[in-house]
Batch of 4 targets.
Target 1
Amino acid sequence: MKIKRINIRNLILLSAFAAAFSVVGCLAAYTDRTKIDALPADISGEELTSAMASSIDSAAEDVIASNEALSTETVQVTSEDASATLERTVFTVTEYEAPVTMYTSDTVNVRSGAGTDYDKLGKLRWGSQTQVTGETDNGWYEVLFGDSTAFIIGDYMVSELPGTPLVFVGDSRTVQMEKAVGSTDSAFIAKIGEGYSWFKNTALSEIPSYAGTGTSMIINFGVNDLANAGKYISLVNSNIDAWTEAGITVYYAAVTPVGSGTTVSNSQIESFNARLQAELDPRVQWIDGYTYLSQTGFSTADGLHYNNDTYRNLYSYYMSVISQA
């Protein structure tokens, strides 16, 4: 029975596909049809299979070579890139004979190595007591952290418990600011309805318990006794030497504006603020919260005390002034 040549070729192609069990072989055989068409019509089945296998092998080698070249180009990394990826701070540790107790002077990151390019393992808050086991040649401390050792940059470690970073001293407005912002890393020495006498007789003696090296102290008295401007000036100026020697940075926060319905006026507050700003020792830094709230606005229910959002905004303003000092 005579079978058309095109049918024979189709059968041979199918046989080649089944024998190769390879997608690459299939594609290679199919794309090499010109070679199949050039074979003589009377070629034997064995000769045609051999020729087909040779064509597949050749095409497959070309495809593999092409893929290898593409793969090499895709994953190629220059020596410069590899160096940048793998480079970490190199350091050596001098171990102590026994752990030494130290304290964190601020909230600080704990890392897996002595450099900011190492992973963060956690954080320690201000005043955290830490066991130090060694120090590095690039200014870091090796510390015990959990069940292993870690590293903290030396700028934030001190041998004695440091002063609270922020100490607020004041009246009811200071009390309410504490409620609005919380007291993390801060201390509040304040009492509702108080003024000069309480500052002198009570708060003054409590300050050393909280304030010390590195402390920023913000004083905010006056709204309850604006007539005592001279006494406030004298009290602060007479203590500035001791505070400065203790490492305390002193700020006096201006009495902030009032709304309607109060027994004091903003003109009285402005006079009080102007006198303090002019006569306080130059080492006392002024924070002009009065102008800040007058310009940005504030919300008060009783004319004297603010809502939480206003206190938080005022606190943020205080922090911006202190950070720029």
Note: The longest helix spans residues 45-75.
Target 2
Amino acid sequence: MSEEKSVMNRNTYLSKNIGDFSETIEFAGRKYLKVEDLRYGTNPHQPAAFYKPIDVVSPIGDMKMLKNGKSGLSQTNLEDLSYALNIVKFFDLPACAVMKHVNPSGAATKCGDESIKDVYIKARDCDARAAFGSAVAFNVPVDVETAKEIMGTFVECVVAPDYEEGVLEIFNDTETYKFNRHVRIIQAVNFESLPKYTGETSEIHNTVKVLADGSLVIAAPLTTSLCSVADLKVAEAENKRCGMQKSETEPTEQQKNDMLTAWYINLSVRSNGVVIVKDGQTLSVGTGEQDRVGAVEQAIWKFENKYEGKATLQNSVMASDGFFPFEDGVEVAAKAGITAIIAPSGSLRDADVIKRANELGVALVHAPERIFSHH
């Protein structure tokens, strides 16, 4: 490829492809105002526009661009930012989510006396290779040391409720951080008001899926009934092969917290999805597999080949967004060192799975719902 064509291709990704989109639209009885014409949609040849509902507080629709670049945001940027906020909204502790292709490459919460920078590094280093060119979200203000760490690698976008004094100067220092001169810095407030728990949502938050022929599927948002560790229930089930089975291994308090963390992260993972967590850090994410044990195998392979942190899988926990149809998922997890698992029930072999988990010394908790995400 000639140098001229290479420059043209790069410019394609930096240019804005404006389409013919109305300033206002009406959908399902609600009016929407165009926030802006996006840089492009999913790909540069697809024009796109971003709308928000009129007269409604919109944590994402009302985001403020504090530093722009690359001619603005694309649809892919917005989707990553949205799903990243969809993770950090759950946590009272400082949290960070690193998103790539609408899946978390890593996420983490504060543990002990860790700094915000430490939390970011834990989230990034779950899969530092995948984090290249990611969107990063925080649920707390970003400080100077964290900003410097972010600018040390290539990041597309950063979103947070606020930025401490001196941080924007670092993000705008294109001489020191030439590689990140196009990073976009965004402020989003009140995103903790996004729907989290079942029963607290409204039609404003309904999701819309457009099918290939333009047909629409409107659905309630994906939420969970798990509000705290007090909602975790010991797995139990009965069938003719095994009789009544109940999980016998008691998870530690830290494992209970980690199971809840893994569950909240898994809500934003494409199914089949599993999330492995230890001490508030995502160790690996298995996503998009067509079979359950395949998602577990993928997550373990990713940890062994891509994780750059200091933790081990020994005594880690795992969340599965669907039930285990067979015992193999628990067997693969236990062999790798995972000793506590949260998953929904619903399999004809639930009792078999619980029995095998007991034999392997794995604590098993049944979640109250399945959380498949086909985004």
Note: The first strand starts at residue 24 and ends at 27.
Target 3
Amino acid sequence: MAQGFQRHQRVAEQIKREMAEIIRDTGVDSGPNAPLTLLTITDCEVSRDLAYARIFYSVLNAEEQPVAQQWFEEAAGHLRSELGHRMRLRIVPQLSFIFDNSIEQGMQMDALIRAVRENEPDDEELDSPSTDDDSADQR
């Protein structure tokens, strides 16, 4: 019989969905000086005993990360309470929020690959003989 997903993995996926909805519904009030442009929940990992959850997030502008982290730290209690109202769990996990820089790293890797490709000679130049060499041999 196929095992499928274990309970802590299913709970992690549900927490990820619920946290995204909570943030969408309540909004991120980071103050008038530094409004967050786009905050995304990228992943969630839950311990096997469901006591702890690590929630990974990203922001559109990486410079907004400290503001987002501060907001999460201040709102963690409210978010956990709201999560408890939405999910039927005996114990709501303790939440910790971690910035996920994988999108930024992916963009950097893409830029590096593009730079290498732009500096490489074309395949056609390598395969076809040069016309300058042919004219020198005929003299």
Note: The first strand starts at residue 39 and ends at 46.
Target 4
Amino acid sequence: MAQPISENPRIGMTTTEAPFIEEARERGELYIDQPYELYSEANHDAWRKLYARMTGRWEQYANDKFMEGIASLCLSPDQVPKLEDVNQFLCPLTGFRAKAVSGYVPAFLFFDCLRQREFPTTITIRRGDKLDYLPEPDIFHDIAGHVPMHTDMAFADTLVRFGDAAHLAADIAQSIPDHEERVRRVTSIVRAMARFFWFTIEFGLMRSQKSAGLKAYGSGLLSSYGELAYSIDAPEVQRFPIQLEWVINQGFEIDHYQPLLFIVDSFDHLFAEVDRLIQWMGEGKLNNVAPGEPDVNEDDIRSFLNASVG
């Protein structure tokens, strides 16, 4: 029996164990370069295992645009991708590019990156003995889960509209003179945006264009071996046509398979729903959404209050 490839905590780009990332954070560097030479053989082995077991699941459950995107990006099944190689294939298609980050990106900065057709990308990868679940994003989730969708122009334009929504939210925040009311309203708006993003970009389902069934387009599903099949096949999952008023008031938890998912008809439909989200924001309909998950942290709030918009 082949022996597992061991991890050395002093080297490599393993999630929560990468000295390069910790040093970048200590220096306050959010946007970084990808130090490709630091990936260990254990890191590449984790990518190989993740990619190999997802291939059949993608063919069965992923939407057609995702499959076209996987082919367009020419991702290697054998090693962690170089972002510069990914971008060489991605940029000519939609203008998007993967942008390496050292960790969590505050909400306004994240959405503003999307508006500029840049996708903040985690460059560490989960341990080989923890392939099934990771609370933090990693490069497999971001590159193999998210980025193939960025090769489709309709989907890419939808992400840009999310960035427009963030700019409107920042404009609204900065127009409110009372500090407490400004914070309260921003918290509600950001919670609504986070819920919408979660139930669409991360865990969205779409009606198949070729059959009567459903396909996944959300990256949280497309990067999860277990949940991708569960989302389509499990009888206990509640699946409903997307309803904006429901989505923005629906809390979610990240540490288990999702019991409730929403369905769009197409990416044009999704874009129209983001447009409605923006319209509702301008009309004040996001100012008092239901409390609950997700928590909106101080960094997210501060990112909107201190945003440079225009």
Note: Strands lie at 97-101, 118-122, 205-207, 214-216, 238-241, 260-264.
